[in-house]
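From: lab user (bench 3)
To: helpdesk
Subject: output format question, protein + UFG

Hello, I'm new to running complex predictions and I'm not sure whether the block I got back is the full result or only part of it. Here's what I submitted:
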Amino acid sequence: MILVLGGAGYIGSHAVKMLIERGESVIVVDNLETGHAAAVHPNAKFYNVDIRNEEELDEVFMENRIESVIHFSANSLVGESVSEPIKYFDNNVFGAINLLKIMRKYEVKKIVFSSTAAVYGEPKQVPILETSETVPTSPYGASKLMMEQIFKWADLAHGIKFVSLRYFNVAGADASGEIGEAHGVETHLIPLVLQVPLGQREFITVFGTDYPTKDGTCIRDYVHVTDLIEAHIKALEYLRLDHNSEIFNLGSGDGFSVMEIIEVARKVTGHPIPVKLSERRPGDPSVLIASSEKAHKLLNWTPQKNSVETIIGDAWKWHNAHPNGYKSNKGAE
Ligand code: UFG
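Helpdesk reply: Thanks, we reran it on our side. This is the complete output you should expect:
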């Protein structure tokens, strides 16, 4: 059995669906702080448990024969982490320590977990390699880097093997249109842009037009959530083959500016999507592009859906069918 922590969230729910479609037995643990009960796959066994609750998490391990863990239960907003650092270290770092104690107790030796491009901070060169310098500029990035270090020492001492996946900009949705991104407070570019054609927002604000890029707006590397989960499944297979612990970047290797994303969204939705040019958002690096060469070589991972048209098209399919996320859809709550 695979334990998916955070399986009611955006990325976790996609992982659960894909694992179940491949015949795996899945248990979901989620405290529903940002996840949705309606996003939990009907064939997954669900526990409403917070990973920081040692007693309750212990029970999940006692009741089930868990072979491996995929861990998505973290807070992940850069801006929020700056104003609420303790929340981030508590959930992300303390949560991971709690999890490791229990994995050690039940001798669960395999874990794949989400890390982030935010561990690098402002990169000195692009594309970014896993060996590039890590100087996080936010508590969020720092918390993920700490998690990686804790897992490294737990591996050396207790043989708990891990794969840490440093995501770049995850977007898109399952091609079925049944699950997708639905955050209480949305901060990510693509879902915010799509709120304009949905009639929920009049314009999209572009944060900064004076970056040293081709059109002055920030460049990011967008990876489709389905490709991202494919990498998790390959990472799990990698650990099942008794390989060593590794860290991988996950991105498509292509960079798109904020303006280019808005332009593609106009084409996909057929809506003019007005923009309002504004100041830089504090802490945004100008260019983030991944080298995913290592994941390609060691995991045999190649993103299949790396056209931004497909990424935005799949996101649009989800948002258009579920304009209020998981809230307003009869029968889906
Ligand atoms: N942006 C806008 N307007 C908006 C929202 C975003 O112009 O209304 C811009 C941002 O300034 C940025 C780009 O769109 O240049 C992408 O912003 P997102 O918030 O969608 O994503 P980030 O690149 O800030 O965040 C991603 C991941 C984080 C990770 C971070 C690392 O989502 O988990 O990269 O810097 F930590």
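A quick orientation on your result: DSSP finds ten helices and 13 strands in the chain. Let us know if anything else is unclear.
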